[in-house]
Amino acid sequence: MSVSSATLAQMVRNSAGALGKAASGLGEHFAWRPLDKGRSAHDQVLEVAGLYLVTKQLIETGELPPLDRSAHLTAMAEFDTPEKALKQLTDAADLLGIAVEVAPTERLQKVVALPFGPGMEKTIAEVVLMAYWNTVYHEGQVNYIQTLNA
Fold this sequence. Notes:
The chain is mainly alpha-helical. 68% of the residues lie in helices and 4% in strands. It contains 6 helices and 2 strands, in the order αααααββα. Strands 1-2 form a two-stranded antiparallel ribbon. A hairpin with a 7-residue loop joins strand 1 (111-113) and strand 2 (121-123). Helix 1 (5-24) runs antiparallel to helix 4 (82-102), helix 2 crosses helix 3 (69-78) and helix 2 runs parallel beside helix 4. The longest helix is centred in the C-terminal third of the chain and has 25 residues, at 124-148. The radius of gyration is 16 Å and the shape is globular. The mean pLDDT is 94.
């Protein structure tokens, strides 16, 4: 069974919307870190947005860009309010969705090596699905943070 590009793009947008809704539901606790050690919704939202942009670049070029962890810190400073961070999430999801929709099938089927361990190779479509899965995971984490603030 294969998933169409349009469906894959909609999955990304829907999951970003669900994460955004969960994060915005935290209100003043958007940047709160459990026990001052955990990750805030703010941090997680911008991680997802950053991964979307890296995945978009992968689709467009066929090559995984170098992962730059300092870019996340820069994003945290630039998108420093809930409104800015949530807009960045939505914008990045839209950009990734568009890239998926217009990518040739051959591009999405290209196999790339991921930097997470030797021999980890995935198609670009699988990388998009990994970005989707990551979003769903973080939605759960943000929903858990809500329970800690209840």
